[in-house]
Amino acid sequence: xxxxxxxxxxxxxxxxxxxxxxxxxxxxxxxxxxxxxxxxxxxxxxxxxxxxxxxxxxxxxxxxxxxxxxxxxxxxxxxxxxxxxxxxxxxxxxxxxxxxxxxxxxxxxxxxxxxxxxxxxxxxxxxxxxxxxxxxxxxxxxxxxxxxxxxxxxxxxxxxxxxxxxxxxxxxxxxxxxxxxxxxxxxxxxxxxxxxxxxxxxxxxxxxxxxxxxxxxxxxxxxxxxxxxxxxxxxxxxxxxxxxxxxxxxxxxxxxxxxxxxxxxxxxxxxxxxxxxxxxxxxxxxxxxxxxxxxxxxxxxxxxxxxxxxxxxxxxxxxxxxxxxxxxxxxxxxxxxxxxxxxxxxxxxxxxxxxxxxxxxxxxxxxxxxxxxxxxxxxxxxxxxxxxxxxxxxxxxxxxxxxxxxxxxxxxxxxxxxxxxxxxxxxxxxxxxxxxxxxxxxxxxxxxxxxxxxxxxxxxxxxxxxxxxxxxxxxxxxxxxxxxxxxxxxxxxxxxxxxxxxxxxxxxxxxxxxxxxxxxxxxxxxxxxxxxxxxxxxxxxxxxxxxxxxxxxxxxxxxxxxxxxxxxxxxxxxxxxxxxxx
Amino acid sequence: xxxxxxxxxxxxxxxxxxxxxxxxxxxxxxxxxxxxxxxxxxxxxxxxxxxxxxxxxxxxxxxxxxxxxxxxxxxxxxxxxxxxxxxxxxxxxxxxxxxxxxxxxxxxxxxxxxxxxxxxxxxxxxxxxxxxxxxxxxxxxxxxxxxxxxxxxxxxxxxxxxxxxxxxxxxxxxxxxxxxxxxxxxxxxxxxxxxxxxxxxxxxxxxxxxxxxxxxxxxxxxxxxxxxxxxxxxxxxxxxxxxxxxxxxxxxx
Lengths: 582, 253
Ligand SMILES: Cc1cc2nc3c(=O)[nH]c(=O)nc-3n(C[C@H](O)[C@H](O)[C@H](O)COP(=O)(O)OP(=O)(O)OC[C@H]3O[C@@H](n4cnc5c(N)ncnc54)[C@H](O)[C@@H]3O)c2cc1C
Ligand code: SF4
Ligand code: FES
Known about the structure:
Largest sheet of chain B: 5 strands, mixed
Oligomer: heterodimer
CATH topology of the largest domain in chain B: Fumarate Reductase Iron-sulfur Protein, Chain B, domain 2
Distance between the termini of chain A: 57 Å
Low-confidence stretches of chain A: none
Number of strands of chain B: 7
Bound molecules: flavin-adenine dinucleotide, iron/sulfur cluster, FE2/S2 (inorganic) cluster
Number of helices of chain A: 16
């Protein structure tokens, strides 16, 4: 057994984890990551990071707050949205001071551009709020933070896989992780633990998410009795590359791209005449699925998970396409062999972002119930967490803000608690590694099937029945299927016995995590008999504030399956819920 | 790169081809080092080579080992030698590779298992050139100003995803593993030519050393393989010039 003792252990080295790490110069810290830090999925973000700097035109954080609340279909906790919008400004400057190569205005300030849902003066018209670094803002955030972490001599445990969360005496005592390189199990004893493990898009067959986005942190917490909040709110981005799921950024529609059905019609004009293609992501995704179901997909099959529509940029002209949309042209050429200058690009909605996750308070402390009781010493930030600033639907460029604002708050809160001696080592539970060792041993000695079919069946059923549009009957079928897959998973077998870089074992552990996340998602979706933001029920197409203006908390049964769904009120301060109209 | 035949998404399913994939395997537990193994696998011309590896792993041999994450060429996990050239497995399609494909770990790195190499020395070299902004002047309350021209000056180096393809294709690296390698110089360039940075002289000193830029023989392999299209050799030449002139030519406004 390998034992380590640190003041703080941070799991995840994407934007959220590294931002937290940077706040702790005086503590002994370890950052654990299953991939090299620069491989984290934050690097894939293209569009930008929102902050009301007002460099290009008048802007105020209150406007940003309003857009966030409205975009989230009023399920946003408004105290959190206030913090987000206010602190975004300072956090962006901090990144700039660390060297982040933002694009610049002529007078040398950070350049800003428009992005869907961000408006001036409480919805009057679009505003330039997104700070960006070419079409690789996430890449630059990740690189800059990693570089600053090197400067600050942060200690990394790379290619270590989180397997368990240690809780004793009602406090967090540390984590257990598996070293992929040599198969050794390590115990990390810590005064505070931060989960920053990212999303779980891999639960769906078409996704923009990396293969590593498997909801590990969420699932580990969930299995240790911590609820998962609002998991039914999952964002489908309308423009994923057909079949591959790789994202074609909203920038295309921002520049004027059309969406076309098989009649060559710009169908969005029919659904949202004023905004057309620029309507929010959840709405555009639903319109695409409706077109396909009504036989107006390009192949005309009516099958919404296998048909597609066109994203057309031809009318923008070669020069604009080359200058403004290099990523889109590059991805379309590379993965579809399509030349967007002369041909329309096949796209379909792609599973993109988890609004839900591990519930936290404004300081990033994980809370375990509707009374907001914190689990002392346990923090979460970034996509794996739910604070909740995104409510039922996240605005573009608001995730990167979430990472830097709440990653920073978590780090700062821990620093403060350490300075005042309010955090200490909880005793380790007896035999802390036993659960991990048992699980791994079982996977090696099991005699059932291998993981491949279980994973593919999960991804297919989630896409089909727990995707852009949902019904009670579909969700029940999905729930039964996930339960069946969970059952089969209990017997799943790892064929590779090696302790050296056993990626099959990693994938099987990841599959278990995905199944747990999927289970909570489906349960929340089935119980929520309304439509709000990213959660759309065909059988309950309207928002129902009287019954559902509340956050879901899904608790797991020790024997597996969802034990209970409980509900937590939404914090409303400034903006009373109104119909979300665009 | 092979000029590709035109394939559209519509014929993707109908056109499956049978591939013969040869993979150079290293399985330390079994004492296997660098042994070629052949797999036959059905694939579509539009499959990424990474999809092919996944298919082998998920349906034929769970022990096949490689790194991957983003699957669209932005995270730098899956650089490997495919048909003799370093590439990202997720950024090259079957249609570009033909029906006989070989895959092996990148040269110049210690092999851990199959296609997975030890990247620790690579990152240690990166760290050596101080890849972070050096500037002790207290920052202003808002941003430090930088003109678009100043920003453009170091743009190329900011694209690097630290995949290691350049360094693994460099004969100077193969000959001398102490050499910092093109990736370190690319990232040094990114800071040396940043108008906000004050650490140019420290870095230029490190790179003027015998393990520094002068080992580059301008062979251009690095620039050819870089999946981000960074003109690596040009950046190295830029740094050489800065050493000769004693300071980098950074636009003053
Ligand atoms: C294609 C794409 C484009 C996007 N564009 C934008 C955009 O323009 N603007 C915006 O605001 N948002 C964007 N997003 C969303 C945003 O990028 C992500 O939500 C965000 O980067 C998540 O960051 P994170 O720090 O929470 O997690 P990640 O960056 O995903 O990092 C997770 C970390 O946890 C580690 N980890 C996970 N599991 C384990 C385990 N079991 N053991 C050890 N370590 C583990 C990983 O190694 C990794 O380091 C985009 C997302 C995608 C997919
Ligand atoms: S310079 Fe190019 S090839 Fe080299 S590590 Fe960076 S991205 Fe990879
Ligand atoms: S898997 Fe990320 S670059 Fe290929």
